[in-house]
Every structure is written in C-alpha cells, then in structure tokens.
Amino acid sequence: MMAAAAPASAGTVILEGSDAIGFHCPFGQTTACDYRDQTWTAIGGSDSRPILVAGLNVVNGPTGSGTHAVVNVNDLSTAGDLSDYVAIYFMAGFGCCDSNPGSIAGRQADVTAYVNGGGTVEIGNYDGDAGWDFLTGGSGNGAFIAGVGGALSGPSCTDEEAVTPTGITNGFTQPGVVSCWTHQAYGKDHFAALGFTINFFDSDPEFALENPGYGGFSSLLSNGRTVTGDSAAPEPASWALMLIGFGGLGAALRMQRRRAVATA
Questions:
Q1: Which of 74, 142, 218, 259 lies 20 to 30 A from 236 at CA?
Q2: What pLDDT is stored for residue 1 in this prediction?
Q3: Can you give the residue ranges of every domain in the chain?
Q4: Which residues of 207-225 are buried (b: 16+ CB within 10 A; e: fewer)?
Q5: CA distances (Å), 26 to each of 21, 39, 96, 234, 255, in order?
Q6: C-alpha angle 236-240-244 in degrees, rounded to nearest 5
Q7: pTM for this structure?
Q8: What is the pLDDT of residues 102-112, one digit of tens each?
C-alpha cells in the first residue's frame, strides 16, 4: 500500500504505544509517573502555559504532574482556545490500551491549526484509528501497527522497549519496568513515508521478529523533535553564526601567527 503524504506542519505529532501515563501512573507506579513527568518536560519545556490532557481516565481520575501545570478535560469541547496550551496529550480510552479520537469533539480543524502553528500533540496508545488520519496522514495505518488494535502480530504487553540516542536527546531515559509499558508498535518504513522519522523508543525485538519487512518498530514515534530536542539542536541560523564565528577566530589566529613570524 502506498502511503499518502502527511499534512505539512510546523509542529510535532507523537505516536505513543504506552499507557504508562493514563493507567500505570494513576495506579501509583512510581516509574510510570517518572515517565509521565519526563514526557511533560519533553513536550512542555520551560513554557509557562499548561499541558492539556484530553480524555479523562474515568477509572483513576485526572492525570497529574510533578513538573508542569496540567488541565484535564473530558474532550476538547470545553478546552477553549488551544493556543492557551503548550502541548496537547490525548489520553487513551479509560487511560489504557486504545486511542480515543472521540476526545477531539469535532475540533479537527482547530487541532490542525494548532499543530501547523508549531504546537505539539501526543496520542496515547495510538492504534491507527481512522479518526486520527487528519493528523497523521495516510489511511489504513492500523495495517502497519503491531500489538493491541493493530493488524500485525506481536506482544500485546511488554517492557522490552529501549530508549534510543535520539530519545535521550529529546528528553527521555530508559523507563523502569511497569509490568506492561508497550501495547502498540509502529512499522518504521510505513510511518516514515508519512513523515514520522524520529524514533524515541525501539520496540521489543519480538515485534520485528514476528513481522519482518517493516523496517523495525518504534513505540514512541514522532514527526518532529520535542521542545527538549529543539533546544539541544541549534537552528540553521545559529549554525551559520557559529560557523562565521569559528571562521573569524581561525583568521585571527592565523594573523597572530604571521605577526609572530614577522617579528621573530
């Protein structure tokens, strides 16, 4: 199947195959809450605006934070102006296992504008539901997802994910065991064609063993850097200024050496 191009955006969309934030942390697992706060820091940075969590966990209550202000809403119908938030996190249905596009509440155009304006959106337990196609591009993405809700086989529950060097640069570290961190894994080749080329966590190797030919699998896949990753990578203009500076420094050192030789 040929993947359709993803909609162009200035912001970032992150596909998350975990329920640590919506399920394990509210149940009191410290390592899951550590991951939650890593995520909030990665997508929120030092921006003073709160993070919007859409889709209440009706079992365990609102999602909290040890690092950022968080606003919990059942869906976007009560969220107001999306530009009031540094990032939007869409929680899985009931906090676990499958995505919840109903929490968009008909505001697809507003979410698109938010991302195109530079905002960050993360979808918990993204399972390829067509309700997210406006944001992810393509169609039939579930055919390239392994695990819960996807068409491909693989562990439905695993802690064998591994943070990548790119993940570390973007603010993540290897999460502690939560008894079931990964539910979904994303075929890298298919999603790369949609613009999702930045892999923060490699999935359990079992996904690739059971499904060869998909370019490997990611459990946290993005089409852009996090706020932390952006701050770690100088913009092109900054690189240009740095190179000019280095060039000037080199010229000055060469001039010094010439003067030293001339006076020797």
A1: 218
A2: 38
A3: 12-233, 234-264
A4: bbeebeebebbbbbbbbbb
A5: 7, 15, 11, 36, 64
A6: 170
A7: 0.85
A8: 999 999 999 99
